[in-house]
Automatic annotation (TrEMBL), chains A, B:
PROSITE patterns: PEPTIDASE_M32
Binding sites annotated in the UniProt record for Zn(2+): 267, 271, 297
Matching SUPFAM superfamilies: Metalloproteases ('zincins'), catalytic domain (SSF55486)
UniProt cofactor(s): Zn(2+)
EC number(s) from the headed UniProt entry: 3.4.17.19
Protein family according to the UniProt entry: Belongs to the peptidase M32 family.
Organism: Roseateles depolymerans
Protein name: Metal-dependent carboxypeptidase
Length: 499, 499
């Protein structure tokens, strides 16, 4: 990433980013350990050590010299990749420098207070208590949105959304979610009618953690995870962390059920392979990072929904399940596939199937956007929630705050503009597979016979190796030949669930 | 550690040290992970991340502002503990600032080159090759010794020794090793004659790693390890790392033998409990750190040799061994004790029993000291080694470099002045237990009935909780009422092996 042309400012910026990247490596590993291995006595000193490092990284990211370096680099003879790299450096700089230190600190305090209280308020269904802590978070994020909006020229909500999905705008989200809203409730009803007559054999547990772990590792091998560049461990909340050269995935096991851990592991494997295959030549620079939250989710959902819930894939899973968990009627490929594609509206987003999941996301988007634009207040959330749950999923959530707006801690953690990415990811994933099928008509047959290389090669070439070279809309166009198109997601669901 | 009196310079120093400590926490965890869990792909970025942090810590430790702060703190109204704390800050500062950056870098390069080549030269018995790489290391450490000697006023070897055992001088090492040299070879012969007629039943393996791990964890529990503040994992080279609030111990397992891992785990547990019980109020300041390498080893050897090889302790181990490894004649307490106290001269220091171990250390001390003082050269090492092995242990090492001076990588790693600490540690440990026995005549009976609290309380009170408040000679005097006295170590060996 340093050219033969004279680009001293750009080169200096590269050095600074690589230094930050090396320090972030230590932060990433300590965070992983915190979730996966740390005994309770380590909690306080670990939190202090991580906070110290965050302060240091913030200091490096707001070094007054950067502004001038970025301006000078702009004038240097950069090639296309370097120019994209500089654009990403500017994005990182804007995001680190948009907010005054006092706002960063107030936000951090309000969030940790809200999150901490939420842990006991949720089980107590204490909306009145929660809303008192959510209000200051909303106030501070609105202030953040205002500042981000001023520096970027975007609307307030768009300025927040742009942090998670660079280049995505709410006008586009409105368009795609508006379309989804038209046909999704009807589709859900149709699928449920159809599945009502379907018999699913229930697996008989318990399934030992050791056997489930071995099964998960075999699934990861099948999906091409590079164990020389990563590991699988356990944590309460599964995640994919670490660094691209050493990806740390976690899962959790329930002895009464193996499917949750297996599909969770497959999901994280999608995140993991994206990270493992980011462009190594640019490593340490922002251009080498995964593009966005929605793109990341498009990879985990490519693995979990497009691949693992594919009817042909169940035949690949069956021998692995039998090898590790023994022989049961439930483990027949067609039964595994039915288990993995069961559709049922429920209160909880994270437990939702791929058909009802978007309803949960649309609901949140339709609340958080007016909330950020100042059109509604936190007190308005429950009534809107109840109405939309009724409308989208036919469920009554009145008075049930803990399984309603208190089920997620995202808003309490200041994450506004983040929810749409889950469903954008699902739609991108459907679009990737539609493109693969168009380019390679044998795709479904290939998957059924275990020939997954074409899928991995496509994702590697079009997504993983691109890093952050393009903003999301351009990446989508280049990868699939068209902008985000909800028709692919709809066709995917109809083919799989009504076909 | 901040008083009501006005001590702004001292307070500033405390803040700086605590900041460094928080960053060192991340370094410690990443180092532990590097040895225990990291896949091979992580090696290069991890090494770079650790090096970046080392550079940053060095920069913080050589901040030009420190010199003035230390001088100003000297004039402030400090209490006794603060004054000791300042003394340790000065020690840390001197050690970080004694060497010019160019020497630090040349040393680091020469060492990694020498260590790397050693890995293949040792198996090839290639002394001629090794000596070419050892020579520049010796040259650079001599230069370091010269600079440290100039800034401290100590002799060159003493200046090196002082880094590992603050306050210890070679005159004192000469005195105690000179004494040891008088009676040790005779004692070894006597013990061997006596043990020649002893029958030891050999355990029948294999012993699964899982069973050995469970046994090791039970031994750690018996020895009071706090699992809320630490863990046991596996690594090729066992060590005790992490931070006092979260100690990361490792061991390794051989399925054909369980005793190595068990005694190794017990050894590291001694290191671990020292760390876990360092004074929390001073945490983050140099005064809260373990006193020295010799003192640390006195804790691991208190656990491994004084306690675990105690005839009464074998009765505590027997039920644990039977619980995890099954019933075998070899697992009877008296047989376990015989296995753990078998004496035999051998080539390899790390495999040596507690009776022959000091001979290995004396030999190294008698070579490294003149080498550092410039009285001999690296070419002289093999002949000296052969002569001393013959003299001390009656073994012929001629031509066998790989089991001779090439067995350890310490010298190649620039560690001169470090070896004496192993045997100083063994002698301190004997002195601690002699003091405990004097103060509590029931000690041996207490140990035999599993009442270990008096031992732990004594160590906690006299050693662990003292941190680095006193230099080693004063700590020894305060803990045991007298200076280091070799008679205790001799009496310990005679009582155990000839009694
Ligand atoms: Zn995900
Ligand atoms: Zn040790």
């Amino acid at each position: 990433m340093t050219s033969s042309a004279s680009t001293p400012a750009y080169d200096d910026l590269c050095q600074r980013h690589r230094r930050k990247h090396r320090l972030q490596h230590l932060h990433a590993m300590a965070s992983w350990d915190q979730a996966a291995f740390m005994p309770p006595g380590g909690a306080v000193p670990r939190a202090e050590a991580l906070a110290e490092m965050e302060g240091l990284l913030h200091q490096l990211g707001t070094d007054p010299a950067l502004k001038d370096l970025l301006a000078r680099a702009e004038q240097e003879p950069l090639d296309d990749v370097q120019r994209a790299s500089l654009r990403e450096m500017q994005r990182v700089w804007r995001s680190a420098n948009a907010l005054p230190q006092s706002l960063v600190e107030s936000k951090s305090l309000a969030i940790s207070h809200c999150e901490h209280a939420w842990r006991s308020q949720r089980p107590a269904n204490d909306w009145a208590g929660y809303v008192e802590n959510l209000r200051p978070v909303v106030r501070l994020i609105r202030e953040e949105a205002r500042l981000l909006s001023e520096s970027s020229g975007l609307s307030k909500y768009d300025a927040l959304l742009d942090q998670y999905e660079p280049g995505m705008r709410s006008a586009e989200v409105d368009r795609v979610f508006g379309d989804l809203r038209q046909w999704l409730p009807g589709l859900i009803r149709q699928v449920m009618e159809r599945q009502a007559g379907e018999a699913v054999v229930a697996p008989q547990g318990p399934f030992s953690t050791a056997a489930q772990r071995a099964l998960g590792l075999d699934a990861m091998k099948l999906l091409g995870f590079d164990f020389a560049a990563g590991r699988l461990d356990e944590s309460t909340h599964p995640f994919c962390g670490g660094v691209p050269e050493d990806v740390r995935m976690t899962t959790r096991y329930r002895e009464d059920s193996f499917l949750q851990s297996l599909t969770g592991t497959i999901h994280e494997t999608g995140h993991g392979r994206y990270e493992q295959n980011l462009p190594r030549d640019w490593m340490g620079l922002p251009i080498a990072a995964a593009r966005s939250m929605g793109l990341h989710e498009s990879q985990s959902l490519s693995f979990e929904m497009q691949l693992a819930s594919h009817p042909g894939f169940a035949g690949l899973l069956e021998p692995l399940v039998r090898r590790h968990l023994g022989d049961q009627p439930a483990f027949a490929a067609d039964n595994l596939h039915r288990m993995m594609t069961r559709v049922a509206p429920g209160y909880i987003r994270v437990d939702a199937d791929e058909v009802t999941y978007p309803a949960h996301v649309i609901l949140r988007y339709e609340i958080e956007r007016p909330l950020m634009e100042g059109e509604i207040e936190v007190e308005d959330i429950p009534a809107l929630w109840d109405a939309k749950m009724q409308e989208l999923l036919g469920l009554d959530t009145r008075g049930n705050f803990k399984d309603g707006p208190m089920q997620d801690v995202h808003w309490g953690a200041g994450l506004f503009g983040y929810f749409p990415c889950y469903t954008l990811g699902a739609m991108y994933a459907a679009q990737w597979f539609a493109t693969m099928r168009r380019e390679r008509p044998s795709l479904d047959a290939d998957i059924a016979r275990g020939e997954l290389t074409p899928v991995f090669d496509w994702l590697k070439d079009r997504i993983w190796q691109q890093g952050s070279r393009y903003e999301t809309p351009e990446l989508v166009q280049r990868a699939s030949g068209e902008p985000l198109n909800t028709a692919h997601f709809r066709r995917h669901l109809e083919a799989r669930y009504l076909g």
